[in-house]
Structures are given as structure tokens and as C-alpha cells.
Amino acid sequence: MKKISTSSSTSSSSGSLNISNDIHSSVFPYFAQWQESHGKVFIYWLGTEPFLYIADPEFLKTMSNGVMGKSWGKPNVFKNDRKPMFGDGLVMVEGDDWVRHRHVITPALSPPNLKAMASLMVESTNNMLQKWGTLINSGYKEIDVEREMIATAGEIIAKTSFGIGYENGREVFEKLRAIQFALFKTNRYVGVPYSKLLCPKQTLEAKNLGKEIDDLLLSIIAERKKSNNNGGYVEKDLLGLLLEENHEDGKLGKKLTTRELVDECKTFFFGGHETTALALSWTLLLLAKHPEWQNCLRDEIKQVQGDKQIDFSMLAGLKKMGWVWNEVLRLYSPSPNVQRQTREDMTVNNLTIPKGTNVWIDVVGMHHDPNLWGEDVFEFKPERFKDDLYGGCKHKMGFLPFGFGGRMCVGRNLSMMEYKIVLSLILTRFSLSVSPTYSHSPSIMLSLRPGLGLPLIIEPLCN
């Protein structure tokens, strides 16, 4: 796998004039190569760990039929590897604990609570755009929008979900990103026995950073608990709702322990800003390449918003922006794969998949499959989602931007709201074009991100 990746990386990046959306063979070169030899369902190994690779939506549908969310787990090999980053948060926890965590978290993301977050999102985005205006007036027109989106989304999640200030929020997400680099940028040996001993530096760095984040979050949680106990105002953000005593009977009503709270905060901090920030980054690139869609979205924003400030009630009217969102998630899905581990024996098409089998679902492979999407599969065509939630895909399981089944991403509505607010504010103030210094190099580092940054030319719109 390393050899195929190395030979692929020497020829995969391309300049700003040659931006191809055909990315499967560059981000997963070994899977693209093995698909040609072995089809869309096969077994491969990571060390001593067998993985069932799936890029066939019908096989996936048959396999997942009737499987409850708690019957799927995350591969133990990845849970152990990523513990400093996620602990036992919702992404990794399973069984009855998963049901309990999901039960506690879901109410925090209800429409009334999302509506309350909108003004904070507008405030953080306006701060970013004000900075852009200052840079442009000083003669800087090229801005690395990926770095800007990551920073702003981190600030938004800090304010809206945890009620914490910019400095504390920035410290948490910078340490999380450092863990991400330590765990995913180097060639490590996941699945190989004693693999952590083969990469001691990265393993120790991730462990130490994980402890530093835990300590910071513990202090934030303790401060909030103290405020609540002293009769202070109970914030209705994610942390406030997680801290509320749940008086329902039975295990579902049991509140989360402090350790579980810390892990949920880490999970939400990372998942809550990373997915949206990368979706926005790839959107800005594609809009820079397709200025006709910039104009189309500006017309829609003007029609829906008029002379008013953007607010929560207007977002549903931004239909075309919803098409763009779906098309970006198809071409550059921030979550490029879905991982599962079977918790019971399964039979699919007379094949027995034993309990404990790791499953790797290739989302990029399915999203870029001409047999599912047609000959225009690599083209940026948001209109394919105009009258079809699945964009004309020939199989509903072929479009999985937020996973599938019971373990589908709980924060997808929060992510879409933030996306529409930030994109609306950017497009009403600036026009975008691709910088000549941009080099197209999508790469996997847990998420699908620009490997060499994403510089765009940003110019103020003429009023």
C-alpha cells in the first residue's frame, strides 16, 4: 500500500489550470488499483487485521438491512489507535453506551437550539471577512481559504457548543489538529502487532496532546458545573445540555460521566468544525473555478434575503445552495470512507461475514463511479440534485456524505446551517478566482483535505 501510494503521489498533484475532480486514484491509489483486479468487494489485510472492502452499494444495502446502529461497531484497531483524539465519544462508543450517548446528544441539536446558534455564526464569519477586507486593502489578494475556514469553524464550534472564548477554543482545536498530524501524516503500521513501538515519537506526541486537551476540557467543564451549582444561568449550548441532570428512569436516562463528557467534547470539537470547514473550502475552490455558479448563488441569496441580514428562517429558501452543498459532498466528501466492525455473524449473498470482521466502505469510490452517476460523474453539476435527493445516482446507497443507517452523523443539520450562513456572507461581499499558486493535491489525513493549502484570489464585489 505504501509503495503504490508513493508512486502515485509523484504524479498526482496538478496546477491551478488543471483541476480534475477525478480523485479516487490519487487519494486511494491502492483501492483503485485493486478494484480493477478484484472488483468492488474483496478482503485485504492491515497487518494481522482482515478488512472487507466495499464499493458496491447493493452489497452494502443487503449487508446493512435490518442492522441496528448498535449492532455495528468501529474497528477495535482504529479505536485503540485514535483514542487520544476521540476517546470513547459518540464516534467510537457502541452498544447500549452508544444508544445512551446518542439519546443525550440529539436534543442539543434540535431546530430551536440550532436557531439560537445562528447569530454567533454570523458574528464569527463577519470577523473573518473584516480581516479579509483589511488584508485586501493592504495589497494582499491571495488568501489560503482552507486555513481561514478551519480557524473560523473552530471559533464557531467553541462559541456555539461550549460557550468558551476564542483563546480557549483555539487552543483546543490547535492541539486536536496537532494530534491529527501526528496520527495520520506519517506512514504508520496500524494493524501490525506492537505497531506503536515502531512509531514511538508520534505515539507519545499524540498521547501527551490528548492529555493536555483532556485537562483543558476538564477545567472548562468544572467551571461550568460550578456556575450552574451557584445558581448561574444554564447555557443551552451543547455542553450545557450535556450537563443537565436527566431524570428519566433506566439506563437511557443516566447522565454522562465527566470522562464521557470530555470525550464527547473532543469528538464534537473535531467533528463539528472539520467537516464543515472542509466542505466550505472545497466549495470555494469549485465556485472559483465556476464563476457562473457564484453569480447564480448571489442571485438566490438576494432573492431570499433581500436587504435583510441573513438569519435561520431564510436558510431553507437557499435551494440552489443546497444543490451545491450536495455536489461538493459528492466530489470532495470530507469523510472519504466509513468504517464498521460487525458485532454478529452476517450472511450476504450466501457469503458469511464473521462477527468481528472489519469493514471499509469506500465513499470516494462510490461517489466517483461512472456506473452509478453516468459519464458526467467528474463534472461539477449541482443541478443534478435539483429534483433528486440522490443526484440521479442509480442506487440510494451510492451517496453517503454523512454515513448511513443508525450511526449516520448526528451533526449534519448543524453543519448545513453553518455552511449556508458562512457561504452566504462570503458571496455577498467577495468574488473568488483560483490563484496561479494553487496546486491541486487532495489528500487523506483522516478527512479529505487540500494537501498543499488552498490559496484563492479574493476581491471585493463592486456595489
UniProtKB/TrEMBL annotation:
The keyword Protein transport does not apply. It is found in: Membrane. It comes from the Eukaryota. It is a single-pass membrane protein. GO terms for cellular component: membrane. It holds the Pfam family p450. Its cofactor is heme. Its main location: membrane. Keywords: Heme, Iron, Membrane, Metal-binding, Monooxygenase, Oxidoreductase, Transmembrane, Transmembrane helix. The keyword Electron transport does not apply. Heme binds at C409. One of its GO terms (molecular function) is iron ion binding. Belongs to the cytochrome P450 family. PANTHER family: CYTOCHROME P450 FAMILY MEMBER, CYTOCHROME P450, FAMILY 715, SUBFAMILY A, POLYPEPTIDE 1. This is Cytochrome p450. The gene is CYP715A51.
